[in-house]
Amino acid sequence: MAFLFTSECVTAGHPDKLSDSISDAILDAYLAKDPRCRVAVETFVTNGFCLIGGEVGSAVDGLWIDAPAIARETMKAIGYGDPRAGYPAEDVGVMNAIGRQSSEIAQGVVKDDPETQGAGDQGLMFGYACRDTEELMPLPMALARRLVEGLMELRESGTLDYLLPDGKTQVTIEYGDDDQPRRIHTVVVSTHHAVEADQATIRADVERHLFPMLPSELMDDDTILHVNPTGAFTIGGPKGDTGLTGRKIIVDTYGGWAAHGGGAFSGKDPSKVDRSACYMSRYVAKNIVAAGLADACEIQLAYAIGVAEPVSLRVRAQGWGRDAVPDEILEQAVRRVFRLTPRGIIDDLDLLRPIYLDTAMHGHFGRPGLPWEATDKVDALKAEVEALASA
């Protein structure tokens, strides 16, 4: 049956993404001083105010960072040094309410033998990959992000100097009876802008600069374009709406095309499997698809707090794609090829580094250079699948 499917993406200046970025900038600052520290930080932003709260645990005595200064630096980097944006970083009141990590949580994570390190929380995590795009991401999400990247570049480069940091995009794809994309049905671009910019100019610039970023073979005369559909968007960012860490988990994952876990990513060190196991799940799924073992693949992992081994692993490739190795064989191969304990994930993906602000600002999946986007397990997976199938 033919159907429509929509995904959205937001710029780094969206209030929720600004909150994510501040939380991850603080995480990076702690990891730079103590790679083994445990961090769970959340940020709330609103008109003229920023609240940072959470918990930190470290074996380093007196570990301290200047969280308010880091918050303001992050605001400026994202574009809130521009007074037109309505949230001037230097004048924002920042409250720091970061405390010490609960000893009861710490006892499940801190072990004499690092290999027995338990998960920092219970929960379920998903990863996904498919052949829709070169980056092995669902097409609606990939295109929505492409437009956001273009919007941010137009602002940061000064090409369109009336653009301000906040913004959203949305792409609706029409799929045919064969579940393959037929055409781009609707595109929505909402962009924060200076008062002097008129809507006709903004629309013309979006069509000229952003439309060429979409695949021309999927565009036609019937494609619908909405640009700032409510009219002017001069009041944006935290001046126009509150922001909170962790409210963009669909944007952070697969645009709603595949399942996602209940936990957010930003502000959490990799002992929190909410984050690290989602990265591992993407790594596993992407390598399965890149190896040609499935057209699409979804991975689910689940953990118990303080326990190293996952309580469950599910590999679902059959039914996602036209062709796939049986799920039970893929599951056995995954268990042999990938280390799925918190310590194994952290070591194999090299996660104890200050790399997280970039993910909050520009996306967690489908981008080159991120360790969980590597396809270095393709040969090992193929060999294991062949051995299991022959046995």
CATH level-1 class of the domain at 123-131 and 272-390: Alpha Beta
Mean pLDDT: 94
Number of strands: 11
Oligomer: single chain
The number of distinct helices, counting runs of at least 4 residues, comes to 12
Biggest beta sheet summary: 4 strands, mixed
Principal-axis shape: flat
Q: Helix amount, in percent? A: 25-40%
Strand content: 15-25%
CATH topology of the domain at 123-131 and 272-390: GMP Synthetase, Chain A, domain 3
**What's the Cα radius of gyration?**
22 Å
Whole-Å distance between the termini?
A: 39 Å
Structural class, from helix and strand content?
A: alpha+beta
Low-confidence stretches are none
Spatial strand sequence of the major β-sheet? 1-6-7-8
Using the 3D structure, state the CATH architecture of the domain at 123-131 and 272-390.
2-Layer Sandwich
N-to-C SSE series? EHEEHEHEHEEHEHEHHEEHHHH
